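Q: How would the structure tokens look for this protein?
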Amino acid sequence: MKIKKVHIDGFGKWHDQDFDFTANPQIIYGPNEAGKTTLTAFLVSVLFGFADGRGKNRFAQYIPKTTSSYGGSLLVEINGRDYVIKRQRGRNGGKVSVTDSQGRQGGEQKLKQLLGPMDRSLYQALFSFGQRDLTAVDELNRDEWQQHLQQLGAVGSAQWDQLIDQYQKQADHLYKPRGRKWPLNQDLHQYANLTDKINQARGKFHRYQDLQADLKTNKEKLRQAQAELQKQQPLLQKLEHLQQLWPVYHEWQSSHQTRPLADYLTDQQVTTAQELQVRERELRRQQQVYQQRLARIDHQSPQATKHSPQSMPELQRLKEQAVELQAEEALQRRQQTQANQWQQELTAIKTHYHQPLPAPLTPQEKAELARLLNVQPLSRANTNQSNGYPSRAAMIGIVGGFVLFIIGLLANATFITAIGAIAAFATVMYLYYQRQGSHSAPVTTDSQAIMAFGQKHGLQDFPPDQWLLMQDDLQRNAELTAQLQTANQDQQRYDHQLTVFNQQLPPALQNLTLAAVRTKLDDLLEQGQQARQDIQVNTREKATIANNLAQLNQDYNKIHQQKLAIYQQAGVHNDNQFTQYLANRSAAQSQALASDAYGQQLTAEDRQALAAYANRDELMTALAKTRHQLDQLNLTISHTHEEIQKDKVEIDSLVKDGTLSNLEQERANLAAKIWHEVQEWLRYQLAIQWINKALVGASADRYPAIIRQAEQYFALLTDHRYSQIDLTVDGIKVVRRDQEVFLVEELSQGTAEQLYIALRLGFVTVMSDQANFPIIIDDGFVNFDNVRRQRMLALLEKIAEKNQVIYFTADDRIKDLDVKILDLQALKRE
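A: Here is the predicted structure in token form.
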């Protein structure tokens, strides 16, 4: 078997991690806490099952703390074919599946078929070892070495070892040399005690005459006590009978002394009174329900009348003003936009002339100026253009842009508003520059008259040839000034209306927008309307409840009077007295019945005998005295019986020697039992010896090959300082190159570890044709120096020709060697 790839879903600190074991030997480096032992446990767990979590195994499950996934898979190669072995969380070691390269799946049985006779304990004993195993090498005695090699040489010997342990435990449950609680130990101890008693019984023969006299005296004493006992027993039985009857007698006396009630109601009257009580309580409950409903209505009424009907017209008036002001607000926004455009146009006109502008000329003044300047009449079109009147196309542009501008404002569409404003402004500017270019020079002028005209009308700062041309701008300037003034007055009027409106609003609404104020007013009006409706509903409901209460009061008074009439017949006035009356009535009836019942249980003779005692204490005193006398008689009889039996036993023992015979018989029985237990204990011991001999025989044919292979490996690891390994009755011996012989106990720790490794790897090599599994070494060469480590790696490369070798190490010196490693620390950083 060769492990090619590993995927861990979740196991200990590893989760969702992949490993590729491409090298052989596969050397895996990682410092402490890097996850080497976790990865080793994962490989073994997928093959042989997860730990069950019981006892010492509760820390060997490696259940991850950061993920719910538990388990993973191995891609292995067995006999040239690939299999994916996957194991996940489940019972009995986890849920396992095996999938071959053709996609065929199997389960636990398929895995057992692939693993053959190999199980976890055998695998860890043969193919897996670590520093802990090497450290314990020098602590093994000769028998442990022999057993270990026996396990190496006989595949499956672990099961025989378990059978040996089982037989040894069963034998130990029968006998232990230093035990006290085991059956055979106890029986041997009892046998010794019986022998001592028999020796003592053989020396006792006396007291015969004295025992005969005591026996006669005790028999007479017994006869007298038994006669007196027969006389006292009938008296005791009579007193005990009277004791049992005394409670009945006492109750019978008490019932005769109880005075019955003077006034009785019939059962029908009692039933009627109880029914009236129930109806009365129900009516009272209904009254309370209606009163609670009235209280809730009265409690809710302040909320319902929060807005009185008188305030509703005022709220409606404020809402109408808010609607008007909203419309005015929209108009002011549009007018403000227009005013901004007017201001821009006015600024453009003033900027163009750079001088304060005079008032425009009247038509008569323009005619006079034209005469002074000798301006010839123009065509209608030219006149219109020169005077600033736009053409038909220009008018369409201005009107269309203005319409688009108004539509955009109303629809709250910024894009349409911008297009309209741009169109109107572009048309106006086009007419302006066209007018500036159409100057016509006067033919002849009268300078003095013209200058006087200019002084008169404020035109002296401008060239005379522009006076007629600029009249349209002057006219437009005057119009824009007037329009801006009107717009400002409208804005002031709107601000004043808004201020007055805000002063009329409640304080909570004064800082809100008109839209918010309108919404709040709508809510208040709706609440007021709902309040009026609630008041109307509550008023109707209160009237209905009042009518129902009146009817309930009538019914209640009627039933109450009927109940009081029955109470008067019984001499009571309320429910509590009637309840007490019923209790007394029931008690009296019960006492009467009890008196009759008790009277039937007592005979005339019993009453006469019980009447002789003033009270129960006097009867108990007489009973206790009689019992004491009987107890003394019984004690005397019992003691006398014991004395008689004791005398008889001792006499029989002295006459017939029966005690000695019994002891000897008991010892003989015990000897037979001991013999049976010894046979059973010997059977277990012989079975253990037979198994050990059988294992030695089964391993003998493999020892030579294992030892020869181990000698080669041991020589390679020790640089040929040791050339031979011998198995002797004294243990394992090694022969050095100079032919000096050493026991394992005499070797250094490092050399002993090398011997152990050589024996383990020698077995793996010899058995690789029958059991080929990956060899896992967990930090096994800590005590090796660099030279020994190099030799060990060379040996692992040789072993890797037949078996896969996976070597885990935390020694960072491995990085200095020319070998390919898998660095777990670097893998985690990725």
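The longest helix spans residues 514-570.

The two ends are 30 Å apart (CA to CA).

Upvote if useful.
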